[in-house]
Each structure stands twice: as structure tokens, then as C-alpha cells.
Amino acid sequence: MLGNFTYHNPTKLIFGKDAMTSLAGELAAYGPVVQLVYGGGSIKRNGIYDQVMEALAAAGKTVVEDAGVMPNPTVEKLREGVAIARENHVDLILAVGGGSCIDYAKGVAVSVNLPEDVDPWQKYWVDFDEPTCEVVPVGSVLTMVGTGSEMSCGSVITNHEAKMKVGHVFANPDVFPRFAVLNPEFTYTLPRYQMVAGIFDIMNHITEQYFSGTDDNTSDYLSEGLMRSLVAASRAAVKDPQNYEARSNIMWCATWALNTLVACGKATDWEVHMLGQAVGAHTDATHGMTLSAVALPYYRLVMPYGVDKFARFATSVWGISPEGRNAEELAAAGLDAMEAWMREIGCVMSISELGADESMLEGLADSTLIMQGGYHALTRDEVIEVFRASL
Ligand code: NZQ
Ligand code: ZN
Question: Would the CB of 177 count as within 6 Å of ligand 1?
């Protein structure tokens, strides 16, 4: 553990089939007006909305509905949410959904009490400033697993006009959700495409942190355990999406993959997310699939710069024997094993499938931020090379 770090995560997690029974009690700690944030209506079809409304009624809350948060929430929607929160003087923002709803709720929470002439997009997603105003508390009921937003300070907002999709990981601990209700059964109604996208998102959150640094680091051993658990659980969930054991393990892996634990002492990379977010900014495609479409060309390009770690990945995560292989061969075999797993569970393997084409390569490169924490910082030509190999 060579790096310096502070670990502080104040989110209270309530996990399991009975988790919802705690919601009314959790709500009691906040004021009377709750902004209920949700997406396009899945929670009305699967009954989660009714359960949430029951808990809100039991806690005696006045509910202000804020529906229609789209996957990859936009800056325009964010401005609408801020207006709703200001008009109703809300005491708590309760996000019921996946990462999009929770990220959006955090975005509203840090913006409500800004002076009217301060633009939240500019302040938080361009200048990466911290809140200079009171942050409205956020709580969540998770229905889609992958982003880890339920226990993180991250909020990703898309600006289609600027062709930018930007994540801000806030330093202010008030931005963490105060509580998260995690019932794995709530994920049973997810379309298979979303389930698989979430699984790859989790895997990539772990590898983004794992593929950095050369020191012996406890965080890497934790990451390897999480990746092994995720691979086993994903195989079971793809065969039987109603397998509670598998879905609960995937949910728990997702939370620990991105709640800062496995980043402790690490430089961390995040370049796959930068490439994937560029694809998202241009195509509005599903987040996890934008990552799966670019990850292998990226990792194959940077592997020679971090070959020992990629070799360790092959043996520790995929169980590949080092016997008869040099480090390069072992490292390559590990990435081949990850590719076989990605194909087995149904990941999207090319950006063409997501609506990108050759004519977009320069624009995609313009939208890609270059990170410095991995084994190799990409040049612009290499960014284009990765996108071309991902077509
Ligand atoms: O809108 P509804 O109707 O609810 O449908 C949603 C949406 O279409 C559906 N869904 C969710 N739960 C369901 C369900 N359908 C049936 N049954 C259920 N139980 O799933 C679709 C996708 O939901 P969304 O919230 O968009 O997915 P996800 O959780 O993957 O969130 C994606 C957003 O999070 C950002 C992404 O970039 C993207 O904007 N990320 C946030 C991060 C963070 N906060 O740190 C990190 C991640 O890397 C990621 O970038
Ligand atoms: Zn992600």
C-alpha cells in the first residue's frame, strides 16, 4: 500500500428480501417533503412504486413526484429537477431506480441551494467544483445493479449539445446517499440486456482500479475476490435470472466495486470509462455496453506496459496456469478468458452495434478525456486506434 488515502463512506445499506420494511423508519429522520425521483415507469409495472408509496404514507410524508429520468440523465432534465426541488422546498430526494435516477438525484441535491445565476453543469461537470451550498439529503431504493451509485459520491450527467458525458466524483461526503435499500429481488424484472450491461459495468469498475500500480496492495486482493465472485454469479444469473443467490451476489459485488474501498492506495485508471462515455455522448447507448465494446482493444493496447499485472489477472481471476507460458502469453490468455466470458454472458462487443461508425472516430476522440493513472496514457492516435479496433 504505497498511496495515501482517507476512507470515509457514510451510506447506510439495508440489504435483502426484507429491506423495504426498513424504508418508513429511515424516512422518519428527514423533514416532511420528499421529492420522489424515478425513471420511465418500470417501477409502476413491477410494483416497487406501490411499496415505496406505502412507506412514504406510513412515514407521513408529502410526496412531490419527479418522474421520467432517462437512462444517461441529461442536463436539461437536471434543470427541471432543480426547479421542482426549489419550488417545493424538499427535505429529502428519494431515488427509486438505477444509477441514472441516483446520479440525477445527487445532481439535483448539490444544485438546489446554489444562487440562481450559477449554472450547475458549468460548476460541477466542467469546473469540477465542490458544493458551496447546503446539499439536500438523498436516499435510494435500488432497482438496477451496476453503477455502485447507491454507495458513492459519483454523478454522471450527459450534455448532448456539448457532446459530453461527464462523471463528477464529489469529495464532499454529504453527496453520498444517506441510505440505500437493496433488495436483490427488485432486479428480477430487468431486461437481460440491462442485467448483462450492469454485470460488465461492475467488472470494469474493478479492472479500472486494479490495472494501476505495481506495489503489493491489499486492494488488489479484494478486487480479485470480487471479480471471481462476479464471474461465478454472472454465469448462474445468465442461466437462471431468478436465482436469488446469484442476483444477491451481483448486487453486493456492484456496491463494493465502486464505493472507494478497492481504490484505497491505488492510482486507478478509468480510461475505459472515458472511452465508453465518449461513445455514450455520441450514441446515448447503454453505459455497460459502451464499456464492453471498447474494453478489449484498450486492454490489449496497454497490456505490454503492465504485463506483470495482466499476467497476475490471468492466474488469480481466471485460474490460468503459468506453466509453459511467459508473462506476455499468460497476460494475453487472461484477456482471452475475459473475452470468452463476455461473449458467454452476452456483452456487446463492438461500437458499431451501438450506432457508431467510421465517420465518428475523430468526434469520439474529441469527447474522450485522457487519464494518467493507468499503465499507459493514450495519445490521440491511440484513442482513434482503440475506437477503430472497436468498430
Ligand atoms: O427508467 P425505467 O423505466 O425505470 O427503466 C430503467 C432503464 O431503462 C430500467 N430498469 C431499472 N430497474 C429496472 C428496470 N427495468 C425493469 N426492472 C427493473 N427493476 O433499466 C434501464 C437502465 O437504467 P439506468 O438507471 O440508466 O442504468 P444504470 O444503473 O446502468 O445507470 C446508468 C447511468 O449511470 C452512470 C452511467 O454513465 C449512466 O448515466 N454511471 C454512474 C456512475 C456513478 N454514479 O459513479 C458510475 C458508472 O460508471 C456510470 O458511468
Ligand atoms: Zn461504469
Answer: no
